[in-house]
Specification:
The structure is a homotetramer of 324-residue chains. Chain A is built from eleven helices and ten strands. The first copy, chain A, is globular. The mean pLDDT of chain A is 98. Chains in contact: A-B, A-C, A-D, B-C, B-D, C-D.
Chain lengths: 324, 324, 324, 324
């Protein structure tokens, strides 16, 4: 089998996968270098998504570590969420000092990612939001948030900045919650290096059709990165892709193929109770399978059915051609 | 009591309120002119929201009818949803002739609204969407949709065009589903007469906090019209405002007051089993009550609590000052 | 192809499929006898589900009509929902006269169904519920509801009474909302003719896994009837089975096969914008396909994987064996 | 102020409140005895809810610790969820040895609770469920689960066994998910010491009206314990009661008062970012406030309005009498 997709993954699958009830985690937590080795050993995974500065701080050191196992740096995510310090927000924080620190951290992360030849820098602002009605000064918070994003996007235009929207968790309400808000922000910046990470599960839990969110983003050349996973449209369960929503996952691959997506196909799963290597392997194989199915569908003349909104005709195709 | 809010309402409360199971409706359906009279008789309602061309086609006739009862024309909604003809979409329709007809209808509606001195023209594109995975050519549909909106927004810049987003119903998935997508479209047009109708229930069913959606829209001077109602965040039940989500409804009024909203406070309820006059009266009274509470909260120093993300402090205020 | 499943369907597919916005419906509404003919003409449909007394009142007349087209009477549903009269409930109504009338109607329906050799009598109590907090006297309503069910279940023990639970619509909250509540009621009656109609879409919108709800019901010999359809877990869209939730639909068939379900496989779809015959045909074909896939899965040794909670192993099977 | 409600609370408010992203927690984690002191210091809290055996194993020791601070033992929850060992279930586990161990642990917990004069023993079976379609042998799992519950309920009939249902988390799907399923189980056992813990948030996230779930349980004398908290109907956010769903929280208190609930009013909140003492204090005060409001509503003649399903009349009461 030829692996021609750019697939990166976080190291989560080789971590303890703790949750609020099982604080010790469901599984052993491997050392960072071992995690990289284990990741590299999964057929089809060619890149890694890492948190800055919690997983790498020095690009030179990282480059050596990656070279050793033969992985590329895909995504660099700025970690402004994993410690209590950011509990009331990062780029939107009301505290001027803290917000300045956040902006500075993003810039340092951009520098590091450029030096380490990473593909993009991701802003997932999970702590920027609120829990309770009336808790947030919505006007000020959004103003601060937008300005900060504008600033970091402008910092080094040669580096792509990917906004990963999410509607909730860890905050009960996160500011950048939907593909629409993410696109609105990107458009307002007027910059081509402002784009989107489409996390399939985030899209589903925001009640979106991920394929549609991808299309909207690609129409503006703003789809930079995918985070593949799945859930029951209710929460970010980070399940294996296509395990729940098969048709919509295939539909996503159909549109990625059709519109020529050339960014990274990231894997963002949390196999709490599953073996990490097995879960990643299954994910990679499913992704290739879904692409193959999507490619076949592209040859079926399905567009004619769509032009007539022929739902039955489309379903005839899906059930008869894809299920065996 | 002094009624100083601009409140308009649809005539739904004086219609049969049929649903798919009770096709004959739960209540009598009054004639149009009687509906206007009944609406005008509700204390505090000063305007009406009407569908073009199904409820009015000739502005001159309408003006006389409205003058007779003493109502202003608030919203003019383009009716491209209530007949089977539009079942596969209007401004996004794949059929070129149908789409051209839709665009033409919007333009005629704009002309009529201007002549009848209406406040804004609303695009609620409830039939523009799809039901099934793979049913829609997402790329083409969105391209057509955006272009059509751009065209009608440009048609007569002196008239506000309000996009009312809704995530579903009657289509299982509607294209313009969230405040983010609506804002994205408005920003892309680059025109100041492109704005938003914030239907509270639509916002809730898209899992938004309506206050936040209002703030985002007002930050760009794009909040033109409200549709007040309520639901369980699950469906567009069109219930009486504040009957389910009290705090978030008050929070919306807080931000409308604080940021000086000066558009129309539309009422969009469906009192299937309730008396129309009683339901509208209750709605108007609740809205004034919520505004009064919001005004009091503005005087409490709540902003300091918000600057510290002090959820407990905020709740102390709400529970101790507002509940009696 | 051999059709050995007992499949009945409502006549909805040949009705106007009106909703609250398109009151005239999306399609033509056929006469009753024509609807029966059209239904009988769909390969694989052998029975019909009808409302008493709105679709049939006289069993003798119905028997002739059914004989003419070669259909059996599957389900008889008591229609206490389609007119405004029942807007505040039927078996739970606070009005004593109305409630007595409802009970009497159910009994007459049971008599009619027995005479017409129907399979079961269904109670779908869509109007028994409420919209607003505090609107319902929850204690009295539930007491009345349970007593009435107990009475009609005891009326003629030779006839199965199928309770079709639904969490909402047309009421915003319906009393008998989940499989658990339906089972609780059945168990309390202590009668074997008290059972359940599992509507897949109702189960999904109550956030259930329909297969699990079927298993629970079958463990107590209380699964009498299925209503096949699909949705996005959000609302009773009544879509074609397996069009959204493929895996869980196949899982349902797996358990029906494994535990030997021998009731009726009802079809309850609302093809608002689709041709009725095409939609029903697609549904029947999909159901047979899903059963065939389920039967193959039964031969794979999947039980061993389940005993080890081996989610990856199960997924290997699904993706590699079922997708082609 | 007189504190006459029996209120117990878990120690969560004085723990680190870690989540999967902030593994180190948002706050300091206090020692057990300090947690008890801090809890006892909150005005109105008279009891504690503890996990067996992770928080107490020896009843004699616990009794001394509680006497020292002046707290009673309310709930004893059997901890079969906080370590990886139970990741595939406890009372439903396919592994015979593990399941036997779970049953034995529950029995030991019952013995301990009786000796420590606790009010009830709670089964919250958070790890009994599954993530993926086809992962669970639904028939065997439910059979094992029910048998185990039957056994432990029969073990010492003098001790109340409270089943706390929850629809998900930590498993994506938990078996005992709704009030209906919990009631069904209780009824099947035929035992009066089988009852329910109604966690308001669990009820909301299962799309229930908590008041209705309480009424159903009280009608069968099976409501033993409350877990007060709140959320957005989407997830178990464990927020402060009444902070989101005010009306439904008050409605719950209305029915508890009206039907004379005499069990424990447990507090189950997770103040991730709030001070524990402040959050608990706010919670206690809100609960007394809601009860007071409920008591006033009981005097208004609201029952007459309910008998007529008069939603507007009810709302007049709520908005005019309760908001100030």
């Amino acid at each position: 089998m030829e692996y021609d997709l750019k697939i990166d993954a976080a190291t989560t699958s080789f971590s303890s996968c703790a949750d609020r009830f099982v604080k010790g985690g469901y599984k052993p937590n491997y050392e960072f270098e071992r995690q990289l080795e284990m990741l590299a050993a999964v057929d089809g995974i060619t890149g890694v998504a890492l948190d800055f500065p919690s997983q790498y701080d020095d690009p030179a050191t990282l480059t050596k570590q990656l070279d050793k196992v033969g992985l590329q740096l895909g995504m660099t995510e700025i970690d402004m969420y994993s410690t209590a310090k950011w509990r009331y927000g990062s780029l939107s924080a009301a505290d001027d000092g803290l917000r300045a620190e956040a902006i500075e951290l993003v810039k340092r992360g951009i520098d590091a990612a450029i030096e380490a030849q990473g593909f993009d820098v991701q802003l997932w602002l999970g702590q920027d939001g609120y829990e309770y009605p009336f808790q947030s000064n919505l006007d000020d918070s959004w103003a601060r948030l937008y300005e900060a994003i504008e600033e970091v996007v402008a910092y080094r235009p040669e580096m792509k900045i990917s906004i990963e929207y999410k509607i909730k968790e860890p905050r009960n309400r996160c500011y950048i919650s939907t593909v629409g808000k993410a696109l609105y922000i990107c458009e307002r910046t007027g910059r081509v290096n402002a784009g989107i990470t489409l996390d399939v599960g985030h899209s589903l839990m925001a009640l979106e059709n991920p394929a549609e969110s991808a299309v909207l983003s690609m129409q503006r050349d703003r789809l930079f990165h995918l985070h593949m996973n799945d859930n029951y449209r209710d929460w970010d369960h980070d399940m294996i892709p296509g395990s729940v929503n098969l048709w919509e996952t295939v539909e996503l691959f159909y549109w990625l193929e059709k519109m020529g997506f050339d960014g990274w196909y990231g894997i963002d799963i949390y196999p709490y109770r599953e073996d990490g290597t097995a879960a990643l392997t299954r994910t990679v194989r499913s992704m290739y399978k879904f692409r193959e199915v999507a490619q076949r569908l592209l040859e079926t003349g399905i567009e004619k059915l769509q032009a007539e909104s022929d739902a039955i005709g489309v379903m005839d195709l899906l059930i008869e051609e894809i299920l065996q």
